[in-house]
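Q: Here's a chain of 493 amino acids. Please give me its 3D structure as tokens.
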Amino acid sequence: MDKIQEQRPQKFSGDIEKDIEAVKKILSADDIFVYRFATKDGKTCASVYADGITDKELLGEMAAKPLSLADAPKTAEEAKKMLYFPETKPAEDLQTACNEILSGNPLLLIDGIAEGIVLGTKKVSLRAIMEPQTSITVKGPREGFIEDVKTNMSLIRRRLKTPALRFITLEAGRASKTAVVVAYLEGIADEKIVKEIEERISAIDIDGVPDSSYIGKFLAKKPYSLFKQVGTTEKPDILCAKMLEGRVAVLADGSPIALTLPYMLAEDFQSSQDYFVSPYRATISRILRLAAVVISLFLPAFYVAAELFRLQLLPFGLLMTISGSVQDLPLSPSLELFFLLVVLEVLIEASVRMPKYVALALSVIGALVLGDTAVKAGIVSSPAIIIVALSGISAYTVPDLTGTISVIRLAYVVVAGSIGTYGILLFTALLFYYLVSSDSYGTPLLAPFSPLIKKDLRDSIYKSNIYSLDTRPAVLKSKNKTRLKVRYKEKNG
């Protein structure tokens, strides 16, 4: 168990050497240092900090220098006025002080003052704000979140310059002490949902939270669900747009991925680029994404079912071509498709984890050389290769659903090989039943289609013009429903 948690709250004594010894007893690591200096009248001061995550130059310039040039303060409040720090806070007990030290904020002790002062000199090495690799767009903002929660908060604040923006900072992880921030717009987001999310995060009892995905598992009401329960995004513009609709955002320190609640399945078929092009183009793009998902799920299954049970479903010319290709194959159609889909998943996993300069060559070898060789060797047929390739490409039109699509696609092939078209229809009915009965914090997963909300259809598969989007989504139950007030119209508009 953590030493800090084992200790009972212990107050500072005012004797600087005893207080330093008590802190060092709790934090006995080699990277915890003590920097001693004296005031003008000879009073001993000390700063306890963690090496590597504390800005030592700032500590010396803004704390040690002003105190060494003046007489010793008599109280902690008097000491704060002498410092050049804009960010200071009291530490009434040793446990609180130690937690701050481990976060990168040093502890200032002054002999004769039975209170510590925490200084905000946290030093964090950050990567540049750049476009996320998973959300590349042709038009629109190119900024993406990084691994520092304060920077991510500033990206949100820069876009939402309103006093209604609220940040609630919580802590999760017994050892990691990860800062988790709940962001929402007061008067727009549902306060009940905000309260429930806050309670769920506060109730998390785990040793560490290295990423926001851990938080998402605890926020999901059905953690074993095959489908997503929590929305995700790496772009601040998308997050702010969802918050303006009435959703609640969750940020975790150390993760560039923000969570959004409530979540609807239709969100994954939308793209940030849809709002920077004409509504007609956006509508066509969304229909293409939906069609691609349908092709990815059903094409392998229907190929297996038609070949095994319903040959009359295929046109005569196509039937002759397929029959010529599948002769003398060692595998049945279902095993053939299942095998190729597994090989596809292996290639994807390998290409993702291989170095970039090797991944491209691996993809070419796997897709072209391996596929062509397998057909010539008589292990698989050419139509099966084409179907699996088309199914795999189609799945990546909706990147956030690729994991779910891969699992369901394999299940469809197994069902189609066992029962045929009747199995496909039955499995589809079961999936729809599950989706219809699922919700995310009171919001149906299939909204606005089930239940049917006509007003919300304006920004679902169909993308209407901006003048039609004058109200927030009704399914989110926002108190402030008005989003747009048209003050000017063209004479002929």
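Q: Can you summarize the key feature?
A: The chain has a mean pLDDT of 84.
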